[in-house]
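Teaching assistant here, posting this on the class forum so everyone can see the example we discussed in section. The complex has two components, and the goal was to see what a joint structure prediction looks like when all of them are supplied at once.
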Amino acid sequence: MLLNLKKIFKWVTVGGSRVFLLKDINLDVQEGEFISIMGPSGSGKSTLLNVIGMLDGFDEGEYNFLHEGVHKLKEKQKAQLYKQYIGFVFQQYHLIDELTVYENIETPLIYQDLKATERKAMVADMLDRFNIVGKKDLFPAQLSGGQQQLVGIARALIAKPKLLLADEPTGNLNSKQGEEIMDLFKQLNNEGVTIIQVTHSEKNATYGSRIINLLDGRMENEQTV
Amino acid sequence: MLKSYIKIALRNLLRNRLTSFINIFGLGLSMSVGLMIMIRLQDELSYDKFHPSSARTYRITSAYDKKDKEKWQMASTPLPLMGALEKYDNTIESSVNIYPALNGKATAAGKEIYIAAAFTGPSFFKVFGFSLAAGNTETALQMPNSIVINKTTAEKFFGSGNPIGKMLQMPTGTNFIVTGVLNDKPGKSHIDFDAYASYSTVTQMEKDKVLPEKSNNWYAFNSAYTYVVLKKGISKSALQSQLNAITNEMNSNNKEGVSAFNLQSLNSITPGTDRLENNIGHGSSWGKIYTEAGMSLLILLAACFNYTNLTVARALTRAKEVGVRKIVGAKRSQIFTQYIFESVLLSLLALGLAWIILAAIVRYAPFNDDYEFIPSTFHYNLNYIGWSVVYAIFTGLLAGSSPAWILSAFKPLRILKNLSTAKIMGKIGLQKSLIVFQYSLSLVLIIFLFVFYRQFSFMAQADPGFKKDNVMVVPVNGIDDKIAVEKIAAVSGVKSVTASSAKFSKRFSGMSMPVWLSNKNDALGINYYYADEKFASAMQFRFVAGKNFTTTYADEEKEQYIILNEKAAHALGFVMPDKAVGQKVWINDSAQLEITGVLKDFNYEGSGRPIVPLAFRNKKNAYNFLYVQTETADKKAIEDRVKKALSGLPSIQPFSASWLDDDLDNSNSQTATVSLLGFLGFIALAIASLGLLGLVIYTVEVKGKEISIRKIIGANEVQLVKILSKGFIKLLLIAGLIAMPVGWLLATMFLQNFTERISFGFVNVIGCFLFLLSIGLFTIISQTYKAAVANPVKNLRSE
């Protein structure tokens, strides 16, 4: 098992009463799964993804990641954990505008103190795989949305994560670009990467093996595709 | 990693050119002040480095605690201490004392020059490592009435002639034979006298009652300076206990107080401490150095504070980058280092700018006049450059650490949530009061500078009462002035040549003497110049009574006449100037001069100073400067022709000349001080404005959403600018209300120092304020207008 959530609660206190963002979430994720989280706006999809990604905390419950109790970890240890095992893909791509495609992809490796020659080989490999070798010296602003998202995914994958978290990865893309990205996800999943994505699109959700529906922070139902 | 840091830092600097420029400009300006102070500091620290055994050399200082609680610490010691040290030859290798009791007007070879001289012994050369260009160091200060003079003094008195064996008379009437000429010092020293006379002269001079009897007075602590070189391997404490033995004996005989002698290492004399009295030398004290360093640090802090504000203000736009970096695996320390790197790189660039500013300051010396704010002996050295780089890195750390700390603390989740309304700096009350303070200070400076400039340019234009145009002043430099006058007079374009003992300048540079009519007790101290008989007419002085010196004398060697100004005539008791003509005045016990004329008063010192009594005397060989009256023509060409005319004569210095009107205008308009004040004022204003700019940018960014919403519901641009700018304009008005009265008061007080002064109404102060206000308004509106015209949808979309 890659991770499991047990009775996760998250709330904010407004005017003395609790407003629940997440309510009694129980979820097991096996390695190699491809899960889609769906639900209307404000249902807690992104919050759940952030909790899984350890970017956000929770108020109650247990979260085990690779048999490590995340709820017991300190901020620094959590950061250590997600840096090692989790890659993120965002709707707004979140590339660093000041860096070229090459440098954006290279950044995670720099923070892992890899040698320059090693980094070079890995980045070249990734550029090759995503067919963006010709774009490596361009800046994000010079790319189309689809291309930017490709770079975003390449960056998320370069550190060889076990889990890829994607928050509406196709939300800013047109349907053709979106389809390409989803195909890529499918392919990655086939290669063994576990993926959890948040999506509004029924169609994109069907790429996954499991769909979780959220409403008002609660898991409504779970369906297998 | 390093490469990546540098790359991203450079790209960021290039990307935000305006902010980078503001930061580099602000930091560079304030760093240039620090660099100037560093030059001064290096100069102060360069004292006393060449003395041969400086590690073993000590100065003995004295302390005296009087019973009634008065306490003194003095750099000086009583005279008999020197003799008492002789018996301690087991610890002391050599010792010498310097007794500076011989200052005054020295006369030699017909010339009178003020010199600062001290008595000292033959070991002087051994202890301090001074050497002689002429004479023998072993014997030069052996015999009574010997004197050793420095090169400058030798040239002033004797020109290129050999000074050895010549006689020099001090005002006490004592004659000295020149036995040596000092070489120029190899470096700076706190021991800096024009001449050193043999200590063995003191006994006779005390007998003659021309020196106070201090030779055997153990309690005249303020007499001399005593230096000892310890034997190799002997500790300071060994000598200290011997000194204690001396003071123990002194204290047992003295019920009034307690004396003590201490040792001060030669290296710690300059810069000295302020609590040591009677210090000698031109060196500064640590107190002054700390004050200067503190001032420059304050200016630097203000600029750093601006950098911090601007960077934090812009942090909203960079938060995304931080968040992304953290999500892809950056540790906080890595982000922190990256931002520190950026600020250090920026301050290194600022150092480049500061060096350019400094190079211009060193090259053109705009802040130097008689007082050298930047020592002209300064030359670039590796040490200095190294320290300035350290200084830049320090600046980068100082400016960059707090934004780096704030930025690196961003939680990565913040970039996923709504960030643009986040207030990073919290309440900005501190920043606001700082802006008010900075602007108040700038305004006070501007007002003061304005009145200072106007007053001195007014004075520079004032008529001094003599001819200053087309007068070239040539130092005689040891040439026979009679021959020089003839040579120059033959040059084409020269109308006439006259000679005088001094040059008209901001401060009186002639001599002074007592003058009395009948009773010596009523003697009047009077300034005087020597001038030849053509001087008065050439300089167009107006005679209110009597006439000029005659050109024919019965006895050429004997001085006969004197010309006074009105002030002098009045001070001597002549109500009507013509009554003074023909009267005789005593100038010393044996010489009388006849008043031949009375001159209308003129400004012989800087204009604005009150005119005090002045006399002209007429004596052969007493002239140091030639005044060349020229026709209106090319100054440079005439200089060249005169130079050529003099080229055959044996001169000790290369030819130099200056023009009286330039010299007087320069000194009267106080260009150096105006420049320095202007520079500081500019820095203060620039830093204040940059600070304001940072605050406005921050506010506009934080209020981005509010602006967009207001615009969508119907506010027009003017209304938006008003809403955004109101708070800042209020700050400027508060600064004005504080600074205008202060500035006006300062200006008025300053003008009280001048007899002839400009009128300075409050209108001027308001004018200065309007100037400042317009700069402030420009700063504010440039940003608020930009925000007001921006497309509101953009701001709301990113929510």
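For the discussion questions: Chain A touches chain B at residues 46, 50, 55-56, 79, 83, 88, 90, 94-99, 103, 107-108, 110-113, 155-156, 159, 167 (CB under 8 Å). DSSP finds seven helices and ten strands in chain A. Think about how each of these relates to the inputs above.
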